[in-house]
Structure formats: C-alpha cells, structure tokens
Amino acid sequence: MATGNRRILICGAGIAGPSLAHRLLRYGFEPTVIERAAAFRDGSYLIDVWGTGCDIVERYGLLRSEQERAYQFDSLKFVDERGRKVSGFGRGHVAQGVERKVF
C-alpha cells in the first residue's frame, strides 16, 4: 500500500544514522536525522571495516580516503584500571584470513 510519503525520521547521529540518511537520499527519500546529545563528541572511536563492510565503503566512494587515513598499529593491548596489560594480540592475528581490512 503506497502512500507517496517519502519522509523518514532517523534516530541517532552516530555512524549508522547519517550513513542511512545518505543512502536514502540517493533513492529519493527525505530523511531527517535527530540526536539526543547536545553536541558532537570531540573524539571518536576506532572502528575496523572488513569483508562486506569494505564493499559498502567502496560503494559509497570512500574506500581510498579511508585507507589513506587508516590507523597503523603493530599490536593491541587491553589494560586494567592501573594501566597493566591484561591481554592483547598483534595486527597479523587480527587481519589473518581477511581479504580486505581498514582500521
């Protein structure tokens, strides 16, 4: 049952909300993104994109840009509240068996 209403409300201005809005715009929808936080954070989170995620980033035309800005590291370590290492692993362990990966 088509109503002709192309307006969509998206809750959340993290990575998913604006990404969805961008995609919906390309298909003729009118998305509005709302966010409960008063302002954007100063920092951001480290994310990794691999497999199908790389395909999607490439479809958006952002893969080369993301690869150029990718965070380079040799290993990751997890620390307790005193800064003591409790666990960790090397970059090779993370990327093992993955065809394409961007950190």
TrEMBL record:
InterPro entries: FAD/NAD-bd_sf, FAD_aromatic-hydroxylase. It comes from the Bacteria. SUPFAM superfamilies: FAD/NAD(P)-binding domain. PANTHER family: OXIDOREDUCTASE-RELATED (PTHR46865), POSSIBLE OXIDOREDUCTASE (PTHR46865:SF8). This is FAD binding domain-containing protein. It comes from Paraburkholderia tagetis. The lineage of its organism: Bacteria, Pseudomonadati, Pseudomonadota, Betaproteobacteria, Burkholderiales.
